[in-house]
Amino acid sequence: MRWAEQLIKLTTFEVEVLQGRLAAIVERRLTAEMQLAVLTAQGEAELELARADPETGWRLAAFNVGLKLRKAKVQGDIDIAAAEEAGARDALAEAFETLKKYEQIAENARLAAAKEVARQESAVLDELGLRRAAGRG
Predict the structure, then answer these.
(1) Measured between alpha carbons, how far is 129 from 123 in angstroms, rounded to an integer?
(2) What is the mean pLDDT of residues 1-27?
(3) Residue 96: inside a domain, yes or no?
(4) Mean of the per-residue pLDDT values for the chain?
(5) Which residue has the higher pLDDT, 96 or 51?
(6) Number of structural domains in the chain
(7) 77-120 pLDDT tens trace
(8) Contact 19, 92 (CB under 8 A)
């Protein structure tokens, strides 16, 4: 049964590594989403500033071009992180299923071994009973 314990330990380690990887990807995606929200807020603040001070309104067009480029880059980062997250979730689910299969195989092997021990003990007791019965007769 040592092989089963080692296999389960190795698969558990793989699950933990994949959970860490998934957490890092989710953190990266959330950070990018926060950056996008900040950029949106900056755009709204700049628009309000341009409305309040018409002399600075001429900068708004250039600011919007730069803002659009920054938003596109951050949105690209979000899309990449979301795709990685989906892949990491699938890999984690697959590793978890494998772990559960190995645990079930190990449990079945343990039960079969216990059943075999019980069968052997029963055979020994039957043999002792037969010898006692033969000795009395």
Answers:
(1) 10
(2) 91
(3) yes
(4) 91
(5) 96
(6) 1
(7) 999 999 999 999 999 999 999 999 999 999 998 999 999 999 99
(8) yes
pTM of the model: 0.73
135 lies in a domain?
Answer: no
Q: What residues make up the domain containing 69?
A: 2-103
- Taking each helix axis from N to C end, the angle separating 60-136 and 2-52, rounded to the nearest 10 degrees, works out to 160
Residue pair 5/29 in contact by the 8 Å Cβ criterion: no
The rounded Cα 91 to chain-centroid distance in angstroms is: 7
Residue 133 maps to a domain: no
Tokens of 101: 């299969």
DSSP string across the chain: -HHHHHHHHHHHHHHHHHHHHHHHHHHHHHHHHHHHHHHHHHHHHHHHHHHH-GGGGGGHHHHHHHHHHHHHHHHHHHHHHHHHHHHHHHHHHHHHHHHHHHHHHHHHHHHHHHHHHHHHHHHHHHHHHHHHHHHH-
Euclidean distance between CA atoms 58 and 55, whole angstroms: 7
Q: Is the pLDDT of residue 137 over 70?
A: no
Report the percent of the chain where pLDDT is more than 70. Answer: 99
